[in-house]
Specification:
Layout: H1 2-29, E1 40-43, E2 47-50, E3 59-63, E4 68-75, E5 78-83, E6 86-91, E7 95-98, H2 99-102, E8 107-108, E9 119-120, E10 123-124, E11 139-141, E12 146-148, E13 152-154, H3 155-170, E14 173-179, H4 184-200, H5 202-209, E15 210-212, E16 218-220, E17 239-246, H6 287-298, E18 302-303, E19 310-312, H7 314-323, H8 344-348, H9 358-374, H10 392-408
Parallel strand pairs: 8-14
Antiparallel strand pairs: 1-4, 1-7, 2-3, 4-5, 5-6, 7-13, 9-10, 11-12, 14-17, 15-16, 17-19, 18-19
């Protein structure tokens, strides 16, 4: 009798601890629409796969820059991954994730993976416009069950993009991404092509060099405002080129210019030297562009004065640029290894009542409490987060998933 009373107290205590922690944990758990498990990741640097989620544990294998791997779970700053027949841990601060795996509601149109749309003053860039610059378009993505463009971004950047998408959805809009990570070699080729056009065409040159403010005053810019001559934030996985579309029809909103128009027609601020405030918007910025800017900057992304479509996570850019000795990443994405998670609801529905909710978390806590009280091993079906043990983290995982679905069902 005494053991039963203690057991009930333990279950209630654990449940209250988790419920109390939800406001803190939910923001992390439902940053994304889909679970991390089964997503594709890529390393931005040469890394070590370790036996445990810390830098001091034994090295299992090497993970070269740019190699794709399967994400299994998350523990602190580490992902548990599967790569080349081995399972171990890598620091996700230096990894990219395939954004469609966790944010399938975003529209993806990565034109550089099929036919580039770069122009300047409406004029094609030689050997760039209309060319496939990397990766042959859409590939089958087993996690989301359809063909989709690969879209690698830093994990930290992905979280901010997810928040921006939630803001857009709440207003009836949707993000549409045209570019994310691209190899440094590709950025260099595009820049050299723009430079060639700039040197040979006076209209292009004038529209890259100068903008005219609302007062009629001229302001000076230059080629590097429209494409990085050195390492671009795109080369680190910390940037996206993005627009807005209607969430129902998917029709793109009217913006100041076409995507990837490399000239002062696309500027966000009237001058490259003003503070990045809404009050300093250029006369070219329309309401749709201002909405996009608001969603992205409110989510922690940094804006760019010269392009209404470009946003980057500054901390991520700096982190990867420093780790690559200022060179950025050079790998080309050749494949994704994303896996179907169609059975996820079944796995989390531990009480088999057809839905995932608080009752499932309560059953997990009960099993965990019994294992603690009686020294018995809990059934492995309660290890829903896949970390090899059954404890309160599994119940928290269920509650976070339940809260995530509840939040996104409102969009």
């Amino acid at each position: 009798m005494r053991k039963k009373i203690l057991l009930r107290i333990l279950i209630l205590t654990l449940f209250m601890i988790i419920i109390y922690a939800i406001p803190k944990n939910i923001s992390k758990a439902y940053e994304f629409e889909s679970d991390l498990k089964g997503s594709t990741g890529w390393s931005t640097i040469n890394m070590s796969i370790r036996t445990n989620a810390n830098e001091y544990s034994k090295v299992l294998a090497a993970l070269p820059q740019g190699k794709s791997f399967l994400i299994l779970s998350e523990q602190g700053n580490y992902w548990k991954i599967q790569y080349s027949g081995k399972q171990g841990y890598v620091n996700h601060n230096y990894c990219m994730i395939n954004l469609p795996d966790v944010m399938p509601s975003i529209v993806y149109n990565i034109t550089n993976e099929s036919a580039s749309i770069y122009k300047s003053s409406g004029i094609d860039l030689p050997n760039v416009t209309g060319k496939q610059l990397y990766k042959a378009g859409k590939v089958m993505n087993n996690k989301i069950g359809k063909e989709e463009y690969p879209c690698p971004v830093l994990y930290s950047t992905a979280k901010k993009i997810a928040n921006a998408q939630k803001l857009a959805l709440s207003d009836g809009y949707c993000l549409k991404i045209y570019d994310a990570y691209r190899p440094h070699e590709v950025s260099k080729n595009i820049y050299n092509s723009l430079l060639t056009l700039y040197n040979s065409n006076s209209t292009v040159r004038n529209n890259i060099n100068y903008s005219t403010g609302a007062s009629g005053r001229k302001y000076q810019w230059g080629t590097t405002w429209f494409l990085a001559g050195g390492v671009s934030s795109h080369n680190t996985g910390a940037a996206i080129d993005v627009t807005l579309c209607d969430n129902i029809t998917k029709k793109e909103c009217i913006m100041p210019t076409a995507m990837h128009e490399l000239s002062t027609k696309a500027i966000k601020y009237y001058s490259p030297n003003v503070w990045k405030y809404a009050s300093n918007y250029s006369k070219e910025m329309n309401e749709s562009a201002k909405k996009l800017d608001s969603y992205m900057t409110k989510s922690g992304m940094t804006t760019l004065a010269s392009e209404w479509w470009h946003f980057q996570e500054q901390a991520g850019y700096t982190r990867i640029k420093n780790k690559t000795n200022g060179k950025g990443c050079t790998f080309f994405v050749t494949d994704i290894v994303s896996e179907s998670q169609n059975s996820k609801d079944t796995v989390l529905d531990v009480n088999n009542d057809g839905i995932v909710n608080i009752k499932d978390a309560s059953e997990i806590l009960s099993a965990y409490a019994k294992s603690c009280a009686y020294g018995i091993k809990a059934n492995s079906k309660y290890d829903v987060n896949g970390d090899g043990i059954v404890n309160s983290n599994d119940a928290s995982y269920v509650l976070s998933y339940y809260s995530m679905n509840a939040a996104f069902s409102q969009k």
